[in-house]
Write a structure and sequence with these properties.
The structure is a homodimer of 151-residue chains. With 151 residues, chain A is α+β, with helices and mostly antiparallel strands. Chain A folds into two domains: 90 residues, Winged helix-like DNA-binding domain superfamily/Winged helix DNA-binding domain (Arc Repressor Mutant, subunit A); 60 residues, Dna Ligase, domain 1, CATH 3.30.1490. Helices cover 45% and strands 21% of the residues of chain A. Chain A contains six helices and six strands; from the N terminus they run ααβααββββαβα. In chain A, strands 1-3-2 form a three-stranded antiparallel sheet. A three-stranded mixed sheet of chain A has the order 5-4-6. In chain A, helix 2 crosses helix 3 and helix 3 crosses helix 4. The interface between A and B is large, with 40 and 40 residues. Strand 6 of chain A pairs antiparallel with strand 6 of chain B, so a sheet runs across the interface. Chain A binds a DNA duplex (25 and 25 nucleotides) through helix 4.
Chain lengths: 151, 151
DNA sequence: CTCTCTGCAAAATGTTTGCACACTC
DNA sequence: GAGTGTGCAAACATTTTGCAGAGAG
C-alpha cells in the first residue's frame, strides 16, 4: 500500500489509470498549500521529468477535476488555479481572502459556525425558490493585504 | 440634464470624457439585467454603430471598472462578464446562483440579513487576524437548475 | 495645437485539439 | 491487439498592445 495507492483506487473507480505523469501531478498538489496553476505544476513536474508536457498537465487536471479529486478556481487575471478537494486533502473547509493588489490568496477556516448558519439558510431557501439543486458554494473576500498597504 | 448626464459627471470626475462609444456601452449595460460579456456588448453596439470596434469595448470596460461604475466577474469558462455596480444601477445587493450545466446565472437578493451577520463577523475577524483592509466580498452558489434537471 | 480617444492589425496569453506513437492490460 | 495515455505542433479564444490617425477642448 504505497503512496499512490489511494489515488490509484480513486482513478480506477472512474476507469482511469494512475500513470507516472498523473502521480507526479498529484504529488505536486499534495505537497503544497498554495493554489497552483497548470504552469506551476508543469514547471515542477517538468524539472523532474522533462518528458512530461504541458498538454498532459491540462488533460490530467481536467480528469482530476471531473473525478472530484481536485477543485478548479478561477480567481480572475487569466490562469486557473487548482487544489485538492477537501475530501482528498487534510484541509478543513475554507474560503478565500484575496489581495486586490498583489493577488495573494489566503485560505481561512474561521467563522465556520456563522457561515454554516448563513449557507444553510440561503441554500435551503434558494433551492425552494429557484428549484435548483445546490451542491457547492464559494465565498471570497477582497481587500488589501498588510504588505501592500505599507509597501 | 439628458441621459448621459450622470455618466458624464462620473467620468469627468476621473478626468475622462463621455464619448459616443462610451455612452453606447453604458446604454447596453444599463438596459439589461443580464451579465454581459465584451463580445455581447460589441455585437449590440456594433449593430447600431459599426464604427465602434472591439478594442474600444475592452478599453472602455477597463476604464469603467477602474472608476467603479461597473463590476467585472469571472465566472469561469473563458469570458469575463460585466454589470453596473450596485451604486450605479437600481439593483439591490445581490449574489449569484449558477447552474453548472447550462451556466445560467441568477441574481438573488434574499437572506440579506443572515448574510450581513455572517459577512460582518467574518470581515471584522479577518481584518483583525490577517491585517487586511477588506472592501468587497462575493458569494456564489453552484448547482443544477430545474431545466437542466428535467432536460 | 495638444491631448484624449479610437480603429486596425498584430501580439500575447492561457487553453484545447489532431494526430501519430507508446504503453498497458 | 484494443484501448488508454502522451508529446508535439498547430489551432483556438479572449484579451492586450503599438501605432498612426481622428476628434474634442
Amino acid at each position: 500500500m504505497g503512496r499512490g495507492y489511494k489515488w490509484g483506487q480513486k482513478l480506477a473507480g472512474h476507469g482511469f489509470r494512475l500513470t507516472a505523469a498523473r502521480e507526479a501531478i498529484l504529488d505536486v498538489l499534495s505537497s503544497t498549500n498554495e493554489h497552483v496553476s497548470a504552469e506551476d505544476i508543469y514547471m515542477t513536474v517538468h524539472a523532474d521529468n522533462p518528458r512530461i508536457g504541458l498538454t498532459t498537465i491540462y488533460r490530467t487536471l481536467e480528469l482530476l477535476e471531473q473525478t472530484g479529486i481536485i477543485c478548479k478556481f478561477e480567481f480572475g487575471h487569466g490562469r486557473a488555479k487548482y487544489e485538492l478537494s477537501e475530501a482528498n486533502s487534510h484541509k478543513k473547509h475554507h474560503h478565500h481572502l484575496i489581495c486586490k493588489k498583489c493577488r495573494k490568496i489566503i485560505d481561512y477556516t474561521e467563522f465556520a459556525k456563522a457561515e454554516r448558519e448563513y449557507i444553510q439558510k440561503a441554500e435551503t431557501g434558494l433551492e425552494k425558490k429557484y428549484r435548483f439543486t445546490i451542491d457547492d458554494h464559494l465565498i471570497h473576500f477582497y481587500g488589501i493585504c498588510p504588505e501592500c498597504k505599507t509597501g
